[in-house]
Design goal:
Largest sheet: 14 strands, antiparallel, barrel
Strand order of the largest sheet: 1-2-3-4-5-6-7-8-9-10-11-12-13-14
Shape: globular
Distance between the termini: 42 Å
Helix content: 10-25%
Number of strands: 14
Structural class: mainly beta
Strand content: over 45%
Order of helices and strands: HEEEEEEEEEEEEEE
Radius of gyration: 17 Å
Length: 220
């Protein structure tokens, strides 16, 4: 069960990173920072720090997370976009030093985007991902799949909607065996700082919570 939860969260991180870096690559000269906590259904707490910076069509993102037992995970991603297309790569390092790498391409335009690429695990097994999304009228939707080395398929669907000075977001990740995890959250921004929070619910109904804040460094 624990391994399945970790795999589901990795898919969430992978697809969220693809979506965010495509968007950030259109901006220039800004840096953001994010910190927060995730509390599991049995009280264990994970703390995380994330960051990102964009300049001249290139964005760098990364972060670290420390689990309840002290295990440290870290990740970094770089994406460069020009003329409606992007190339990117990333690395994820688990608590035991196991490394997962990702590389891929994406195209965007007319309010939508598509992405595809490969993910290679610590034992050399390679999987593939496909993702796409679109935005209109202050609302965005996206979906994606990740196919592992053994043919198992994970899928993800998400929606994001503006709400005045904030947003609401819902994500569902489904494992190859049909088990699913959902994440529902919302946030609001004021004075250059955004605060967010929500819940994560597993296939057996166990619910955890998360929360934190994001802030930007000048220029805004």
């Amino acid at each position: 069960m624990a391994k399945a939860l970790v795999a589901a969260l990795c898919v969430l991180v992978l697809l969220a990173t693809i979506i965010a870096t495509i968007s950030d690559a259109k901006a220039g000269g800004r840096t953001w920072h994010r910190s927060g906590t995730v509390k599991g259904p049995w009280g264990g707490t994970t703390t995380f720090q994330r960051y990102g910076a964009c300049q001249g069509g290139t964005c760098v993102r990364g972060g670290t997370a420390i689990g309840p037992g002290g295990g440290v995970r870290s990740w970094s991603n770089t994406r460069t976009c020009a003329g409606g297309s992007c190339t990117g790569s990333g690395t994820y390092v688990g608590p035991g030093g196991k490394v997962v790498t990702r590389s891929g391409t994406a195209t965007y335009g007319n309010g939508g985007w598509q992405a595809q690429g490969t993910v290679t695990g610590p034992r050399g097994g390679t999987g593939n991902y496909q993702a796409s999304g679109s935005c209109a009228g202050g609302a965005c939707s996206s979906s994606g799949t990740w196919t592992g080395p053994n043919g198992g398929v994970w899928s993800s669907n998400s929606t994001l909607a503006r709400t005045g000075n904030g947003w609401e977001r819902d994500v569902r990740v489904t494992a190859p065996n049909g088990a699913s995890w959902t994440r529902s959250g919302a946030g609001s921004c004021a004075g250059g700082v955004c605060n967010f929070g929500g819940t994560v619910t597993g296939p057996r109904g166990n619910t955890g919570t998360y929360g934190g804040s994001t802030w930007w460094s000048p220029p805004w």
